[in-house]
Amino acid sequence: MVELSQRKELKEIASWWLNNRKGNDWKNFEVDNILKARGLYDANQVKLTASDFPAEPAGTKALSSVETIAKLKGDPKLGAAAIAVCYTCHRIGDQGIEYGPNLTTYGRQQSTETIIQALAQPSAMISHGYEGSRLVTKDGLVITGIVLTQGDPTMIKGVGGAIQTIPADRIKSVEKLEKSLMYTPAMLGLTDKSVADLTAYLKSL
User: Fold this and answer.
1) Residue 13 gets which letter from DSSP?
2) Does 101 lie in the same domain as 19?
3) Closest Cα to residue 100, out of 49, 160, 163?
């Protein structure tokens, strides 16, 4: 498992198993010492990066209702161009990052109204397993993301898919967010029309 944790495509799941088993089933293997010797994880040498959720731009106007946007004729070609803003957090085909839900077949599985609501009102319905948390370290650093493991250490996955591994003795608090980790339409520069275009594109995949 230590070897697998060094492979990019398996790092997340392998690290999850190591951190969830090292204190019980794999205790006799002294996993922490192995990781430290390999230069993979040393609690005393961890460097953390702040990743707080940005504030909503001042004076933003909410988009129209889901029903109103659903009446617009979306252009899949314009949606294909606009979808680039989603790649920072979502996987679509062979592009993007595995952070939020994979959107490759999302459009085929959901109704037009459901897709529009997900884009226009991201906090209205949060997918299971993608609930956000806000972690604060004892020195005041704020990290928001998806908690993969909570204990010693705590692993949290942030925007862009970056995973930070945080020793328990550096954590002040970990609290669930009451909103989605997905940026609001205003933060993404979305309008009623661009939401309709994105919806049309996702339905066309």
Assistant:
1) H
2) no
3) 160
Same domain (yes/no): 114, 194: yes
pLDDT in tens, the chain (205 residues): 888 888 878 888 888 888 888 888 898 888 888 888 888 888 889 999 999 988 888 888 889 999 999 999 999 999 999 999 999 999 999 999 989 999 999 999 999 999 999 999 999 989 889 999 999 999 999 999 999 988 889 999 998 888 999 999 999 999 999 999 999 999 999 999 999 999 999 999 9
Rounded to two decimals, what is the model's pTM?
A: 0.83
Would residue 199 count as lying in a domain? yes
Q: How far is CA 81 from CA 13, 52, 60, 122, 197, in A?
A: 32, 28, 23, 21, 9
